Give the backbone structure.
Amino acid sequence: MIEARELLGPAGGARDANRRRMLIEIMIKADRQSRIARRSGLSQASVSTAVQELAEQGVLESDRGQEKVRGRSAQVRLAPIRGVAVGIDISHDHVTVVARRVDQRYDHVSVQQRSDGANRGLGRLMPIIKTMIAEAVEETGQTLDDVVSAGVSVPRMIDPRTGRFTTPVLLPWREDEQPADELARYLGIHVAIDNDANLGAMAEQIYGMDEPAETVVYVKATNGVGVGIMIGDMLYRGHRGMAGEIGHLTIDREGDVCECGGRGCLDTIVGSGSLLAEVRTSHRGSTTDVPVSLPSLIEKAHARDAVCMRVLQDAGRTLGIALAQLCNLINPRIIVLGGELATGKELVLEPCRQELQRYALTGAVNHREGFLLRLSQLSPYTEAHGALILGLRSCQLEESGVE
Ligand SMILES: [Zn+2]
C-alpha cells in the first residue's frame, strides 16, 4: 500500500511543493477539484494536471469523466493509503484527541476524551495525552509509525513568529512548558501548536459548511471568550498571536478586575466563573442546589430553572454586544458559537442574535444578505479537528521513528 509518509516526506512522490500542498489539502478533506485549487492556492490548471498524473499513479481517485459531462468540477479523493493525522485539544479541564486515516472522510475520526486538563498541571498530564494518542491511533487500525502529522490546540495565545506561548503566560500554563515540543519528541515528527479559537475557526471554515465562506469567526466561550478569525482562507493571528482576544474587550469600566489586569473585561461578565458566582449570589448564601460548573448551570437552565435561564440569556446578550463591535470591524459572513456556553443553545443564541441586530450595522448582520450566526456542528470536537488540520498543513517529516 502507498504510504503517506513517503508521499509527503523529503524524498517522496510529491515531486514539488505545490503538489505536496495539494495532497495535504485532499488529506484534510476530499473535495471538488475547484475547491482544492482554492484551498491550496494553486491554479485550476496545475491542480488538474497533478490530479491526472497522481490518478494514473494510483494515489488519487477522481470522477472526472462523469462530472465533465455535467459541467461540474470533479470530486477528488485519496486512494487507500497508509497514514494517520492526529489532533489534540488541551483545555483547562479536559483533553480530546482525534486520529484519522488520511484516506478517510473527515468525520471518520477515532476519539479519546478525558476530563482532566491543564489545571492538573501539564507535567502530570503529558503521559496521559501520549497514552490517548496511542489508543486513538490504534483504533484507526494503524500504528504510531504511520502518523504523518499532529497539531495541538491550547486556550492560550501562541506567537506565530516562534510557535511558542505569547508572554505573559497566565496560569495554569507556564512559559517553560512546551507541549508541542514534548509530543514532537514522542512521535518523532514536527508537532504544530495554536490557540483553540483560531483552530476552531479553521475547522469551521473547512468542515462546518458545504460552501466555504471567505470570512469566518469562531467564538469559543467557556472559562473565558476568545475568537478565531479566518479572512480569505487565512487565519488572522496578528503580530504576536493576540488577535481575537475579545474576552478582554472592555465592556464595563466600573466592572470587576480581570486576570489580565484590566477592568470590566467581557471575561469578567460572561466567563464561567462569573456566571456561577451570579447564581450563587441569587441563592443568598444557601449552597443547596447551586451549580458548581458551567455544564451543570446549563443543565439546570434547560430544566427551566429561572435563575440559570436568566444568567445564560444575559450572557448571550453581553456576548452579542461584544460581537456587534467585531461585526462592524471585520464584517464576517458567518459567526459560529462554540465552547461550553454554546451548549446553552437557543437560551444563549437568541439573545445574542437580538443584540447583534441592535448594535451592529444593519447591513453587516443581514440574514437576507447571507449573514449567519449559528452553533458549531462539530462540537465538542471543533478545536481537535482544527488541530488535526493545522498538523497536516505544518507537516514536516525530516525525522522518523517513534521514541
Ligand atoms: Zn481582561
